[in-house]
Amino acid sequence: MVNNHIVPNGPKPKSIFTARNIMLYGTLFVVAIYYILPLYVMIVTSLKGMPEIRLGNIFAPPLEVTFQPWVKAWSTACTGLNCDGLSRGFWNSVQILIPSVVLSIIIASVNGYALVNWKFKGSEVFFAVLLFGAFIPYQVMIYPIVILLREMGLMGSLWGLVLVHTVFGMPILTLLFRNYFSSVPEELFKAARIDGAGFWGIYFRIMLPMAVPIFVVAMILQVTGIWNDFLFGVIYTKPDIYPMTVQLNNIVNSVQGVKEYNVNMAATLLTGLVPLVLYFVSGKLFVRGIAAGAVKG
Amino acid sequence: MSSVLIKDLTLKYDHLTILDKLNMDIAEGEFLVLLGASGCGKSTLLNCIAGLLDISEGEIHINGENVTWAEPSERGIGMVFQSYALYPQMTVEGNLTFGLKNAKVPKQEIVKRVAKVAEILQIESLLKRKPAALSGGQRQRVAIGRALVREVKVFLFDEPLSNLDAKLRADLRIELKLLHKRLKSTIIYVTHDQVEAMTLADRIAVMKNGVVQQLDTPNGIFHRPINRFVADFIGSPSMNFFEGELVAGDSITFSTKDLVFNVSNYEFINTGAVSCKASLGIRPEAVLTGEHIPENFFRCEISVELVEPMGSDTLVWTKLGGENFRFRMDGKASVKTGDKLTIGFDPSSSSMFNAETEDRI
Amino acid sequence: MAQSMRPNTLLRNLNAKIAAMPMIITVLVIFVGCTIWTVVHSFTKSRMLPKLEFIGFDQYERLWGTSRWLISIENLFIYGICSLVLSLVIGFVLAALLDQKIRFENTLRSIILFPFALSFVVTGLIWQWILNPDLGIQSVVRDLGWTSFAFDPLYNPDIVIYGVLIAGIWQGSGLIMVLMLAGLRGIDEDIWNASRIDGIPKWKTYLFIVIPMMKPVFVTAIVLITSGIVKVYDLIVAQTNGGPGIASEVPAKYVMDSMFLKQNLGQGFAASTMMLLCVLIILIPYAYLEFGGKRNGK
């Protein structure tokens, strides 16, 4: 901060109410409104009764707060034949999420470690193609994967979807771990080899304990990504085990019956809740995760 | 018996040759320093000996056993790294015992060895701490300790003192020397620091571009450099060179445009004196001034161009025969720019190099 | 025990190779195998089931003769250009504003970035509700007295894609802002001091000094945005489902509908191959810049 005083730029403004500050904070305030308003609208809508919604203003706070829409969205809203609400989708998503996150992170961390410390002939080529794969539109690979899963007897099952998530999460996660492990001094790895530790010994005893923060980042990345997935869920599962996003879309965009906007908004909020909570809880780590994944990509 | 024997060691990446047909025979208990500028292949060679890099051709024997393709941990070596490379999540004790546990050494034996090493290095009080809580010097002691507990006969040091500040470096240098005297183990030590090399080594291998230029005692390297590169690389300030012609007649002389030196008493190697284009090098330390100059020395009068006082001695810059010429004087000598001085040196105890091959004549 | 023989090269690093098997299989089977499979089958007359009966470029001719595909491409183009420009501009301006050593920086950053944590489905549904002409923004403004106010992008085929754009920007611009902010923070404070000493106005410093220095960040952002644009699917499905009519169709949806609704696999394969081609057109210059540049640098 000392640097700023090298060039006196007139008297230092004492008040925060300078023209510059009013402009700056004014602009930021308007921007903040644009980003936060939709969330606000969703929350107030989900707490209103249908008559109030039809008559009132979407921005107005509810005159009479009701949690009925939330209850209905969770437990009785209909999608096609099922009328047990989003709860089914929620538990489906949880069941898909946990194995997908665990499996994809294990595989990617071992990949990253092997790519940095145990390079073998062709390992760099495989990694390059893997990264390139991150940019291939999913649509190109979707149908052959349907055939593969059918051959393996996993089409329409939870494990089929877990496998798909693991495969498509691999490029970005492998990159994340590779970058992390290559920042670990190579001499540490050499020291461990002299100490007689092998591939798995070094991974578990040396690298894993050092990489805890990056595991958290990877977890945040994967939980958000898999929870929010729609495309793979709709293709590779069947209605019974649809993840939450697919079920949400079916509830809200179903053409039958009268549109219950409050229930729809409650359902939408419920679906967004998991990543939102994760986002606000993890804060800086979330930012670090997307920045690490993106900048070095 | 030789402790470490390297035969025709060659390392290639794609078509790039990093190390080229190296041969070395290191005796038991010897302190060998690999010295060179960065990128000369000295650390690479050490990694090859450790088994951290697969070599392309050749053989490596340690303690009489061919270990060319053995795992690093099976070679009977301990290694100390520049960045210490302590495992950050383990305590000092954990760092010391990790390798022994991997080798399934019995518990009591581990306890015994750790105690012994901790005592030698005076790190008993640090055993329960994590590396992050240690100072640089303490970390390096622990790193040395990690190599010692292995109780091997050969230790590899990869620039172990480079990350320390000057004072600490000097202290640890002495300690290393004492440690070597006490343990009598073989040490191969990589550094780019001449002072470390000179003070520690029994023998020094000066490397350049993956080739050992000269393998000799510190004295031999300093006074009888094998080629112009070594002559120039060793010594600070570096050697003064004169370009000229060696004429072998009745008396043997070396003459530049303006100067003629009588080098009849020069110890020629191999072929003896043959007339050729050559360069003659004089160490700044070999120059005497005033009344100290013996009769048989070459002498002349110069005028001082620049004086660099360094405390213990003074470095004087001048011109001789049209070339820059530096020499050392006593730190107490009072000279200043413009002074006229008589200097002298013995051309016969200089180093001469063939101008084409740059090899010592 | 120590061995003196050079071990078999295949067996060396065996553990690493075993550990990398999932990656190797993924690369070979999924990324390479499946892509080639689809490209090959785009030249066949597969309909209900894939079959290897080659018909040359027929599927592509039919594709480019279908108005729905043409609209999809047009939409992708409009959405792509607008989204690219707006994301970069908004992302950079917001980052520059946040970089003024302001108060509440963390709070503001959290607010701007939080939509990125939400799925496209959730995003689409939120904005479907806000842009609802009978109850959303349009009705609110009309109730305020401006009765002729019209803002119903989701029901107007001419501007529906802009309605989607608003939602897309809302969701994704925070990410670009974070990237840009990281880029700005990476610029040496001395650059600013030097330009102040030289008396260069701030906006000029941004435009002529800072932005050129942030070229790598911009390149990353552009690659990120464009590769996202090609994949746009969930947002459309949730917000408009391609409507009104076919006014907001996009290529990804065309592929999905051809494959899974219309049982017209050949069209799906051809359309997805075209998408791949789009990505390659973006990616190859990028890869060339990134990796070709490095080689020259050495």
General description of the model:
The complex is a heterotrimer of chains A (297), B (361) and C (298). With 297 residues, chain A is mainly α. Chain A folds into two domains: 15-66, no CATH class; 87-295, MetI-like (MetI-like fold), CATH 1.10.3720. Chain A has helices at residues 19-46, 50-55, 68-75, 87-117, 123-133, 138-152, 158-183, 186-194, 199-210, 212-228, 231-236, 244-252, 261-282, 284-295. Mean pLDDT of chain A is 85; it is low at 1-10. Chain B has two domains: 2-231, P-loop containing nucleotide triphosphate hydrolases (Rossmann fold, 3-Layer(aba) Sandwich); 232-354, Beta Barrel (OB fold (Dihydrolipoamide Acetyltransferase, E2P)). The longest helix of chain B is centred in the middle third of the chain and has 18 residues, at 166-183. By secondary structure, chain C is mainly alpha-helical. In chain C, 69% of the residues lie in helices and 0% in strands. Chain C has helices spanning 14-19, 21-41, 58-64, 67-98, 105-113, 120-130, 137-143, 160-185, 189-197, 202-213, 215-231, 234-239, 251-260, 265-297. The longest helix of chain C has 33 residues, at 265-297. The two termini of chain C are 42 Å apart. Chains A and C meet through helix 1, helix 4, helix 5, helix 6 and helix 7 of A and helix 1, helix 2, helix 4, helix 5 and helix 6 of C.
Q: How does CATH name the architecture of the largest domain in chain B?
A: 3-Layer(aba) Sandwich
List low-pLDDT spans of chain C.
none
* Second-tier CATH architecture of the largest domain in chain C: Orthogonal Bundle
* Greatest interface and its participating residue counts: A-C, 92 and 97 residues
